[in-house]
Amino acid sequence: MIEKQGDVFTTKAFYIGHGVNCQGVMGAGIAKTIRDNFPKNYAEYKKICDEGLLVPGSYGVYVEDSKAIVNLATQEFPGRDAKYEHVFKSLYYFAKRASRQKALEDYGNLVAIPEIGCGIGGLEWPQVANIVKCVEAMVPEIEFEVWHYKP
Fold it and tell me: What angle, rounded to 10 degrees, do the helices at 39-50 and 29-37 form?
């Protein structure tokens, strides 16, 4: 796990992951920034939420403006509803998919994320950091670049 200070949107990584709820709401924090800057991603995210296809512990990936935005379903509802098990499942299932050889060759193995599930989601970073390290150990082809926000 690589830890950086600053804004996750300055990453050189192809993949930018962030936590979302399953209700189609990107109303605050990094999710709002994603909604405002990646409108096609938001439209697809909203659609799969409205259809009931995004469930806690799953994810959706949308390529827009040469970045793959990874919507990690870390919580069912907006607000302080993130769950550690949802963080684990969404990171793990995405990492397994991204670790396929062709994806690594085309896009690299780095996935940039904020302190996922913390802040608005209500989780504690030390526990989430352990989950991120665990996923890296289980899928060693993938490395997470964690951004600790500093304006």
Answer: 110
CA 22/CA 6 separation, integer angstroms: 27
Domains of the chain in start order, with CATH, are 2-149 (3.40.220.10)
Distance CA 44, CA 137 (A): 31
Q: Quote the CA–CA distance of 47 and 77 in Å, as a whole number.
A: 16
Residue numbers in the chain where pLDDT is lower than 50: none
Structure confidence by residue, pLDDT tens digits, 43-67: 999 999 999 999 999 999 999 989 9
Query: What is the DSSP secondary-structure string of 18-64?
Result: EEE-SSS---SHHHHHHHHH-HHHHHHHHHHHHTT---TT-EEEEEE
What backbone phi and psi angles, to 5 degrees, belong to 96?
-60, -45
